[in-house]
């Protein structure tokens, strides 16, 4: 993963991840480490969404087969995260985002649905979701609002922001 600070107070992390569960876990740890090293404090829900997307790609686009790669770019901005993911796995069914059915949770524990909450979760956090397939490649882009930029800022980030004013 490459991490770099760009103009406009953007901290960008980008790279390629092997489409296997262990590589996804390692990539998430590395992303978190880059954020800590930069002094960039962010609301934790970005990681839930990114992990869900990456795991969905591994499980569904590649069906847990070895050999696939996921290219990602995470641009952390003061008010939100612009995330893009590319892979050459299977297209989403029907070429569109899966539905997020509302599950009845007022049932005995044994009758609770086993899955299907991922897209509901992603939709709950994302302000914009765009999916399309072009030239045999899946393209997914998300805009995820993050907490008030001043809330939870580290001293280093606050000083950097003040120096730019």
From TrEMBL:
Limits of the Histidine kinase/HSP90-like ATPase domain: 19-142
Family matches, as InterPro entries: Anti-sigma-factor_SerPK, HATPase_C_sf, HATPase_dom
Keyword Methyltransferase: no
UniProt KW keywords: ATP-binding, Kinase, Nucleotide-binding, Serine/threonine-protein kinase, Transferase
Transmembrane segments: none
Superkingdom per UniProt: Bacteria
Keyword Ligase: no
Molecular function per GO: ATP binding; protein serine/threonine kinase activity
Name by which UniProt lists this protein: ATP-binding protein
Organism: Sagittula salina
């Amino acid at each position: 993963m490459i991490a770099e600070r760009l103009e406009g107070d953007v901290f960008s992390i980008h790279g390629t991840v092997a489409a296997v569960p262990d590589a996804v876990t390692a990539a998430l740890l590395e992303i978190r480490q880059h954020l800590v090293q930069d002094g960039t404090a962010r609301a934790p829900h970005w990681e839930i969404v990114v992990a869900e997307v990456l795991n969905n790609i591994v499980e569904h686009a590649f069906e847990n087969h070895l050999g696939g790669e996921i290219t990602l770019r995470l641009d952390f901005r003061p008010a939100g995260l612009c995330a893009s993911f590319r892979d050459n796995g299977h297209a989403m069914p029907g070429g569109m985002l899966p539905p997020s059915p509302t599950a009845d949770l007022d049932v005995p524990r044994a009758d609770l649905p086993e899955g299907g909450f991922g897209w509901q979760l992603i939709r709950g956090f994302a302000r914009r979701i765009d999916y399309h397939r072009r030239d045999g490649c899946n393209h997914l882009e998300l805009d995820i609002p993050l907490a008030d930029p001043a809330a939870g800022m580290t001293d280093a980030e606050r000083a950097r922001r003040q120096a730019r004013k």
